[in-house]
Amino acid sequence: MDDAVNVPVDNPNADTEWNDILRKHGVIPEKPPSPTPLIEEALVNARKQAHDDRLENKGLDELDELEDEEDADFLEKYRKQRMAELSSIARSSVFNQVYPLQKPDYSRDVTEASKQAFVLVHLTSSLGTNAESRLLTELWRELASKFGDIKFCEIRGDMCIEDYPDKNTPTILVYHNGDIQRQVITLKEFAGPRTRIEDVEKLLVHVGALKANDTRLLQSGPRDELPMSITRNGRPTSKSNDDDDDWD
């Protein structure tokens, strides 16, 4: 029996005539396909998507300024789309203020109301020295005026939940479809006493109260996902024990 012959191969991936002969006879495997065409295709698709979305966040005034640069039909399509969005927002902007809450009316003003729109409740501090609670009260007013299709409410934490720890204020409760969707305890998940309106807007996008391309949003860069707070049975926790709170 003839001894096996070791065929010299310097680089099996090189494009040489010798390697082509070896591949033809199955001595070395076929050269793997080059990733370059796939990368080039991905880049082309990304550029096309960026071009198609170039008007996505433009306001009506900005669209008017592009009349000499964009195709008239394409620009008109986006103008009508933006006007329809603004009209829809105007029709649903029925709140436009911060609503003070009373515990007996909580079920009606929050739980039931959240079946029609997102409702955000700020459980405020009972102490005037809580800087974060005072800050959130100011932000609440700005947000309520800016996003009239979302209902912003306030109630003192210990008036809403008996013995609610003041150290847990401010607390944000996000209601939708009749239940709590998110709970944020203090502003440490944002930027503490340096929290800005943009930080709370990220939360609104995260929970689905706002679309990421809503033209009312401040252009402050990517809106990163926020960490989830702890909830129990869809209701906020007032203590570290397992006592149930009366919300109705």
Task: Considering the chains and any ligands shown, give keywords for the structure.
single chain, 248 residues, alpha/beta, 5-stranded mixed sheet, 8 helices, elongated, disordered C terminus
What is the topological layout?
Blueprint: H1 17-24, H2 36-52, H3 60-65, H4 72-92, E1 98-100, H5 106-112, E2 119-124, H6 131-146, E3 151-156, H7 157-160, E4 171-176, E5 179-185, H8 197-207
Parallel strand pairs: 1-3, 2-3
Antiparallel strand pairs: 2-4, 4-5
Detailed description of the structure:
- By secondary structure, the protein is an alpha/beta fold.
- It has eight helices and five strands; from the N terminus they run H-H-H-H-E-H-E-H-E-H-E-E-H.
- It has helices at residues 17-24, 36-52, 60-65, 72-92, 106-112, 131-146, 157-160, 197-207; strands at 98-100, 119-124, 151-156, 171-176, 179-185.
- A five-stranded mixed sheet has the order 1-3-2-4-5.
- It is elongated.
- The model is unreliable at 219-248 (pLDDT under 50).
